[in-house]
Amino acid sequence: MPTESLLPLMLFALVSTITPGGATTLATASGAHFGFRRSIPVMTGFAFGLGSMACAAAAGLGGVLMALPMLQIVMKALGTLYLIWLAVRIGRSGEPHHAREMTKPTGFVAGVWMLWHNPKGWAMTISAAASFAALATGPLRLAILLGSTFCLIAAFSLAIWCILGHMLARLLKTRWQWRAINIALAGLLVISIVPMWYD
Asked: What is the span of the domain harbouring residue 134?
């Protein structure tokens, strides 16, 4: 397949994954507190979660999930509780070597779960499946194409946010600076929940 045919899909995935949201906020916080290397599991979980959602959307599962309003409400409620819990952990933590509530980085499974519970993520991947169906000759090929594209581009986008978090950590010298950034990141994470509840 010519590269120019993939450019619109790649641009769609880049814009969808690099704009601020829950995953980018957590990648930034993890980079600030634990550095890039220790943040790889959660970033991999986010990327794999989004890629697998895109595969499922292309295969038709996403449409089934979106057609069940009660399941969407349950997913939103569980996801909201989890993100609030993470925001509290981030907001209460101090400097990396003094952090009590964030003693270890978020892992791979938590990253996958966070992505899979989000109906907005399903809506985005279903939209991508509908918009770019012509790029593949069947559902299986479309699933592979969308899954690999979203996984790789999400990994790239999250790596940028994680590196920015790591660089930000080098600028923070005092306890109050860490406290301020932790509260700001926690606030951004809570704000990222709001769009999930809009239709």
From this structure: 3-192
198 occurs within a structural domain: no
| In a domain? residue 44 | yes
pLDDT tier, 100 (very low <50, low <70, confident <90, very high otherwise): very low
Q: Are 87 and 186 in contact (CB under 8 A)?
A: yes
**Spatial distance between the Cα atoms of 131 and 152, rounded to a whole number of angstroms:** 19
Instruction: Report how many domains make up the chain.
Output: 1
From first CA to last CA, the distance across the chain in angstroms is: 35
Highest mean pLDDT, choosing among 27-31, 89-93, 115-119, 131-135: 27-31
Nearest to 91 by CA among 188, 179, 192: 179
pTM: 0.79
Give the C-alpha distances (Å, rounded to integers) separating 115 from 79, 110, 177: 9, 9, 30
Across the chain, mean pLDDT equals 84
The answer to whether residue 60 sits within a structural domain is yes
